[in-house]
Amino acid sequence: MASLTLSPPASLLPGKPHHSPAATIPTTAVTFSRRELAVSLSLPLAGMLCSRPANAVEDDEYVKETEEVIGKVRTIVNMDRADPNAAAAVAELREASNSWVAKYRREKALLGRASFRDVYSALNAVSGHYISFGPTAPIPVKRKTRILEEVDTAEKALLRGSCQDRY
To answer: Which residue ranges have biased composition labelled Low complexity (predicted)?
Structure first.
């Protein structure tokens, strides 16, 4: 097994005259703990991740439209199936959910948000139920509970704001 030893050039050894300007530059060793290094590298990254989007109007529009969809989901899920307006309300929710999903599912900035994930999941569950069983079919208690939990979580994420509304 061969070993490799590195040594400085002869011109840089002590006692030898130095004619190179680079050889006269003093160097100091700086040591960082792993914690200090991790913190110093993560702070700029955190600033980039938590900064508001360039177009805050779009973010405000997303929040407003998402809150409207959440309100409609709650209304439909808690609506009495004997209500004569149930079928019309389900049709209205279906139209609102289709336009919300079509508008926001292609936005890469929103895909990482907990609010988007939970609203999308709740809309999928509600729409799937009414497509399969009709607009007057009652939602099973277990599914209703899950939908309302997702909607509550999404609403809390919206209230926290865009920086904290992440996975």
So the answer is: 1-14
